[in-house]
Structure formats: C-alpha cells, structure tokens
Write a structure and sequence with these properties.
The chain is an alpha/beta fold and 523 residues long. Helix content is 53%, strand content 7%. It has 23 helices and 8 strands. The longest helix is centred in the first third of the chain and has 30 residues.
Length: 523
C-alpha cells in the first residue's frame, strides 16, 4: 500500500477501490448475514417471509426491492436461502422484518458523518456499512484517493469488529480476515483483464499524442453522440479514419487503464462478468462484423450480446465505441432479426464518416501532420495542390477505394508515391496497385515478404518465426515452397531485410509483440 506525500498512480487508486470492494462483498456481507440469521434463523426464513409477503409486494411495486432480489426471497422453486442475499437486501430485511429496533433514528441517515462516533448500536453500524457501500456504488470507475480509502477502511474495520462481537465471532480471526483483504496483492484484477488491458495499450499506443490527431467537425459530432447516448457507431469507407477516431475518443474521455479494445465476443463474455468492479468505463469494438467482408460467424456470435451491451451503456456502466465499414454494417443489419436501438439510424447513434465532409483546412492539417510524422517535407504550395486534387475526386468514381486520411498516409509513407506529388491524389488506388505490381515484377523477395504477412490468418508475422532455420514455423516453410526458394540462413536474412524495408510504408513493426503487420487493412 502506498504511503507518504507522493502522488498516487492510477493503479494504486484502483487497488484501493478493489480492496474496499472485496472487504464489503466478502466480510461485510458475511457479518450482515450472521446478524440476520440470528434474528431470523434459516429454518424459519420461509415462514417469516410468507408472513410479510404483503409488505414485500408493496415494496416491489414501490421499487424498494429490485426484481432480482424479490426472486431470491420468493423463488419459484426451492426455498429462500440467505447465502444468496447481498448487502442491500440484508439491509432492507434487517430494517423491516428482524428483531432489531425498526424505529431507530439512524435507518434513514445517508451520511456517516452525521452519525456520532459515540453511537455504537447495531442499527447505526449496519447503516454505516450500507452508506459506504452506496458511496462505492456511485463511483463511475474503480478509483479511490488514499484519504478516501483510509477513512472508509478504518470506519468499516471498527464497525465490522463490533458487529462480529455481537455475532460471537472470534475477533482475532475476524481481524485477520480484514487484514488479509487489506494486504491482498494477487487476483485483485483477473489475468484475463490484465491481458486485455495490455493488448489495448498496444492498440492505443499510436494514438496517445493528441497533437498528432486532427479533431475534425465529424470528431466533434461523434464526441457529442458518445456523451449523450453513451454509444457511437462509426461507419464509412475504408481509410476514413474510423479506428483512429475511436481510439482518440476513448483516450479523450477516459484514462487509458479504463479503456479496453475487444477483439471478439469472447472478450465481452469475460468483461460482462466483471462490470460491477468498475475497472473500465470505455469499450472499443473495432470492425465489429469483419474487416474486409461480412463475417457471418462474428454476426452470429455478437448478436446475442448486442442488447446486453446497449443496456450496459444505457445504465451508465460503459461508453461504447463501435466501428464498421459502411457496406459491412448495412449487410449485418439484414442478418440481425432483433436490431438493437444503437444500430437504428433514427436513434442517432450511427455516424457515417466520409471524406466529402472534410473541410479544406482539415485536409491541410491531416496531410501536414502525417508528413511531419513520416519525416517528409511538404511546402504549403505542394499541400495546397494535393488537397485541390483530392477535393476534385468523386466518391462515385471507380478509383475511390479509401478515404482521404488513409490516402494521405499512404502518400507520405511510400517514397515512390510521394515523388508523384499531387498526381497521386487523382487516382490513388490505381497508382497503389501499379506499385504493388512493379514490386511483384521486380524483387521477388520483397513481394514475398508482403504475401507472407498477408497469408497469416491474423495478418501478423512474428520475427521469432525467422530466427533460425531449425525453428521456422510451418507457415514460413509453406511460403518458401510456394515461391520456390531454398530454406537456409541466407533466405532468412533476406526476408528480415525485406520486411524491414517495408516498415514505414506497407508495414509497421509492433515492438511490444515483435510482429510485422500491415499499416492499414486497406493494403
């Protein structure tokens, strides 16, 4: 646990929150259960609940008891069991049907600071636990300042030990349990969540610097939608900047530790079980239904969770940012019989990104930033000429394959394309295809390097696959056979050099995972 006057990092603040959460859930619930079982022995629980059933029906209608808790009290099958109750339900029952003082002045007190320290009766201590629990519930994210943590922890420890004594618990055992939660280091965050966060940080790494991103009018619209609806669905042609916008929205509205990029429905399944821990508040689902064509498997897997995701956003648990190519998104809606509101145009959550909406000034900033980032010098006149040509292109033209942001990125990354100047923006797709063809006709190994990455199912090639002749992957062996090369050290050296030569152009190298992948899936 951190101490002293230094600044507390986000990870420590999260640990404070989680420790307090586990103390409430584990020890707080256990102690309240023991008190309740003393007042209403388990053997008499069902009869006692039946006796007060009319009052419970009234509480249910008045929303004093949520539906899930009501079902625990009056299950359709089996008998009610206090092992299934949580703090909020125990509080309601202890106040209303137990042998405690129902007329106590403290039951309605919502601030622990208003209960004097000298008041140590059972009712006041139960209220203290409930108030700390409510304060934690109102947190939007798992984070506590050290002062908050210490004040609530000290209070709960005193209260729990007093109540434990009333339940005839061993105080030394109870103190040991409380201290165990306070010093707990492992499993505060699951391994799955840690892995998901690590992958998300890799995904967001290139978008961390807000100065390297142009906040267009479309970005402003997307941000407004996300604030109001808590869900935004970004669609558009390839290369319109959907992924970049999703990343910047997440980083702009949340701490990086509280964002996750979901690679598939299995990530959501894991995530949904931990939403109550409030470890995150922003979810990105990039290319939700496929990155090149509609993936029927993804549609089938995702559609069972779409309503759940929408509900989590509507209830304030999450902000959700979804991206999809426009034609894939439209096809997917035909496959989903029960379409969630977030996918309906009239709901206002869907935003179509199109280069036609980019202003001259926005194009100028995009091209200038990308050129600087790639180490290319562009005069003001050259930028003006490039933009003028790009503005003359029509989305209905045969050469329109990708949006201006990716077109500008390709232009500055590739030396041959850059040397063509403004001409590139007249027919970018045709020129791009021509350069690939020339690559194929020229150095066969350079073309093979690209195909080797492309042929990987996940479009990622680890440099570990090229370390030694004796340890190359089966994928490399298949590519060697297909291109008619001989597998030896010279070949591996040649492949490594070819891959490196493409970095900054067609490929990027991810240092954290030591993998080569395409700079954009358009390629």
């Amino acid at each position: 646990m951190a101490s002293g006057g230094g600044a507390i990092d986000q990870e420590t603040k999260e640990a404070y929150y989680l420790r307090l959460h586990f103390l409430l859930v584990q020890e707080g619930t256990s102690i309240l259960k023991a008190i309740f079982d003393q007042c209403v022995p388990p053997s008499q629980l069902q009869a006692t609940l039946q006796k007060y059933s009319a009052r419970k029906q009234k509480a249910k209608k008045g929303n004093s008891i949520v539906r899930t808790n009501y079902d625990l009290l009056y299950p359709k099958q089996n008998q009610p069991n206090s092992n299934t109750f949580d703090i909020s339900l125990f509080f309601y029952l202890l106040r209303n049907i137990s042998s405690l003082n129902t007329a106590s002045q403290w039951w309605n007190e919502k601030e622990n600071s208003n209960i004097p320290d000298t008041v140590v009766d059972v009712e006041a201590d139960i209220v203290r636990i409930k108030n700390v629990r409510n304060k934690m519930q109102h947190k939007t994210i798992a984070s506590l300042e050290q002062s908050e943590f210490l004040s609530m922890w000290i209070l709960l420890e005193k209260v729990m030990l007093r109540l434990a004594a009333k339940c005839n618990f061993s105080l030394s055992d109870q103190k040991q349990k409380i201290d165990g939660v306070k010093t707990r280091k492992h499993d505060l965050v699951s391994q799955e969540m840690r892995s998901l966060r690590a992958h998300t940080k890799i995904f967001l790494k290139d978008y961390n610097d807000s100065k390297q991103y142009v906040e267009t009018s479309a970005y402003g619209k997307a941000k407004d939608i996300l604030k109001k609806k808590r869900i935004v669905v970004l669609t558009g042609h390839p290369g319109e900047g959907k992924t970049a916008m999703a990343a910047r929205l997440a980083l702009d509205m949340s701490h990086i530790n509280n964002c996750v990029n979901l690679s598939g429905p299995s990530d959501w399944r894991m995530l949904s079980s931990e939403l109550d821990l409030k470890l995150l508040n922003t979810v990105i689902i990039d290319d939700i239904f496929g990155d090149g064509a509609l993936d029927q498997g993804l549609v089938s897997d995702w559609k069972r969770y779409l309503m759940e995701i929408e509900r989590a956003a509507r209830n304030g648990y999450l902000r959700v940012i979804i991206t999809s190519r426009h034609y894939i998104f439209e096809e997917s809606k035909e496959e989903i019989t029960s379409l969630p509101g977030m996918f309906k145009n009239e709901n206002g959550s869907v935003l179509l990104l199109t280069s036609a909406d980019l202003s001259h000034d926005e194009r100028h900033k995009i091209l200038k930033i990308l050129a600087t980032k790639s180490g290319k010098h562009l005069s003001r006149d050259k930028i003006r000429d490039c933009i003028k040509v790009s503005e003359g292109r029509s989305e209905g033209g045969e050469d329109f394959i990708f949006g201006f942001p990716e077109c500008a990125s390709m232009f500055v990354r590739n030396n041959e394309m850059f040397d063509t100047g403004a001409v590139f923006f007249e027919k970018p797709a045709s020129l791009f295809k021509r350069y690939l063809e020339e690559l194929y006709k020229g150095k066969n190994e350079d073309f093979m390097a690209l195909v080797t990455v492309w042929a990987k199912e996940n479009k990622r090639l680890s440099q570990h696959e090229l370390r030694k002749v004796t340890t190359v992957s089966n994928h490399i062996k298949r590519m060697v056979s297909a291109f008619g090369f001989e597998l030896n050290r010279k070949f591996l050296d040649m492949m490594r050099l070819s891959l490196i030569s493409h970095v900054g152009g067609y490929l990027v190298f991810i240092e954290t995972t030591e993998e080569y992948t395409f700079s954009h899936n358009v390629i």
